[in-house]
Amino acid sequence: MPTHYKTAVAIIGAGPAGLTLAHLLGSLGVDTLVLEKLPNTMEEPRAIGIDSETLRTLQSADILDAVREEIFSGIESSDYLNADGKLLFSLNTLNQTPYGHPLFNTFDQPAFDRILANTIAKRPTVDIHFQHEMLNFTQDANGVFIEAVDANGEGVSIDTQFLVGCDGGRSKVRDLLGIQMTGDSNEYPWLVIDTIDPQFDDGPGSRFFCDPARPGMTIKRGANQRRWEWMLMPGEQPEQLLKTETINELLAPHTDPAQVDIFRRRVYNFAAIIAERWQQGRAFLAGDAAHMTPPFAGQGLNSGMRDVRNLSWKLAMVVNKQAAPTLLESYQQERWQHAQELIQFALSLGEQIQPIDPQKAAERDAFFFAMQQDPAAMDNFSQDMAQSVLVRAIDKGVVANQQDNAINGQMLPQPQIKTESGETCLLDEKLGKGFSILGYNCDPKTLLTESQLQDWQALGTTLISVGDTNCDYQECGAQRLKALFTDNNCNMILVRPDKFILVALNQDTADMALQQARQLLQLI
After folding, report:
1. For the residues of 269-325, what is the DSSP string, one character each?
2. pLDDT digits (tens, 9 = 90+) for 10-58
3. pLDDT, average across residues 2-6
4. Which of 8, 34, 71, 495 counts the highest number of beta carbons within 10 A?
5. What is the Cα–Cα distance from 444 to 233, expressed in whole angstroms?
């Protein structure tokens, strides 16, 4: 007889988005099943950039410590050089830690994925099955029925309340739903290699070679480890670029190829595309199944991590019958536009890196050399380019209107705070995994009544006070936190599990604000 499983959430795909979603759901006690058609996690070189929001997500799922050794946090800026080696512009991330972690970091994705998969066993409510391929699924108002096969070709069936397709750019879940993607594929593929090179350990953290003869880039991944990428020029074939002698020719202007150990190599292409919808009934798309981002901003994987962070707590509330299923309709509302902004950010960077027409490259160089004469203009350019990463907020979905208070919808900064014992920890460690009411230089417990808090305490909401007594305002996150409150007319906020501010609170407006929050969350 076919093997049969019953679960609350089924995830198709054991990539970083699917595995992180499983960890997030597991940390919330949700029964979860992961199906992956491959025998193991992938070993090919893929993403290398991991940002502060993703690290905050891993922190929330209690897996940051497990993967910390695979993360290199020494990337302070990205430089963009023209064909003559002259600086066009830089994107600087030095001291940018508003969310508790360095803004941009690098990592080894194959090792990262292995750790995420191996630590699933510690989750009593989560199971992962490799060499299990989904063939089809059907759904109705009550749930989803999945048909699959195991490694031996034996039938497997699954009854689940919800299905999430984290199965990549060639998503079968998306195909079965008949959902189209819009956007463009890149014209030219790129060669990517991962190397060990002790002699070049003090090389640039992140550098792009905006050379029309052959655009390229390099980025440090840790002690002695580095990634290199070069664009294939018109007419070139992948087989030629993958040859060691060709790679050595590309490396030679920068380092001694004889000292370089190349441990991964691949030619890949990419796209700037997004699915027209991310939900159909009880089935959802996340990560590359929902959108694919060019690599120039290092945001493809991170965008998928934002998806699963957003979706996980909403799935948990619906599964636990705390909120109506219609809460899940806010997932695409809140995520689609930002994913599109990240695609545009990457495309904007690609426009500076990839031109192979010498005339266009010369015009680009002249533009930036002129801008360099105005430091304020250069700074504004860098800030505008990275705005979708530097400042995070949502203005629709499960969030109060920003016209009522600009603090609504902002992502809560995460400063280091001093505990009662005199030690320090990141703010989220005290906020917990659920909702929280945070008072700035005041205690919500004394300002809010028992009746006002009743519904929220039933949800396990944390009440906490932060401010002058436990924040160090020399630190980036504490400065951001102080500015949020001092620039807006409130002294308390209701924070969602994903650390976006749902609504501003004052003692005299608390009744109305908390009732509005109930309605937005569709609490049962």
Report:
1. --EEEEES-SEETTEEE-GGGTEE--GGGS-HHHHHHHHHHHHHHHHHHHHTTSB-G
2. 999 999 999 999 999 999 999 999 999 999 999 887 889 999 999 999 9
3. 92
4. 34
5. 61
Structure tokens at 317: 């509330």
Specify the CATH number of the domain 416-521. Answer: 3.40.30
Give buried/exposed letters for 443-476 (b at 16+ CB in 10 A, else e): ebeebbeeebbeebeeeebbbbbbbeebbeeebb
pLDDT of 424 over the 80 cut: yes
Cα–Cα nearest to 234, from 185, 294, 271, 188: 188
Pairing mode, if any, of strands 143-149 and 155-165?
A: antiparallel
Q: Which helix H or strand E contains 396, and what residues bound it?
A: none
Within 10 angstroms of residue 138's Cβ, the number of other Cβ atoms is 10
Q: Report d(CA 366, CA 192) in Å as an integer.
A: 29
In angstroms, rounded to a whole number, what is the distance separating the alpha carbons of residues 291 and 287?
6
Ordered by start, the domain boundaries in the chain are: 3-47+109-183+272-346, 190-269, 416-521
Give the least confident one: 101-105, 327-331, 351-355, 381-385: 381-385
User: The tokens 């509005």 sit on which residue?
Assistant: 516
**pTM, rounded to two decimals:** 0.95
Q: By CB neighbour count within 10 A (0-12 exposed, 13-18 middle, 19+ buried), where does 344 fall?
A: middle
Model confidence over 361-392: pLDDT tens digits?
999 999 999 999 998 998 888 777 777 677 79
Decide the pairing of beta strands 32-36 and 3-12: parallel
Question: Which residues fall within 8 angstroms of residue 202, CB to CB, at 6 or more apart?
Answer: none
Q: Which of 96-105, 116-125, 471-480 has the highest mean pLDDT?
A: 116-125
Q: Is the confidence at residue 519, as pLDDT, over 80?
A: yes
Q: How far is CA 296 from the centre of its chain?
A: 15
Cα dihedral sign, 59-65-69-70:
negative
Cβ contact 78:456 at 8 Å: no
Instruction: For 137-173, write each residue's pLDDT tens digit.
Output: 999 999 999 999 999 999 999 999 999 999 999 999 9
- The CATH number given to 3-47+109-183+272-346 is 3.50.50.60
Task: Please give the C-alpha separations between residue 340 and each of 171, 241, 250, 290, in angstroms, as whole numbers.
Answer: 19, 32, 33, 11
* DSSP letter (8 states) at residue 500: B
CA 109, distance to chain mean position in Å, is 13
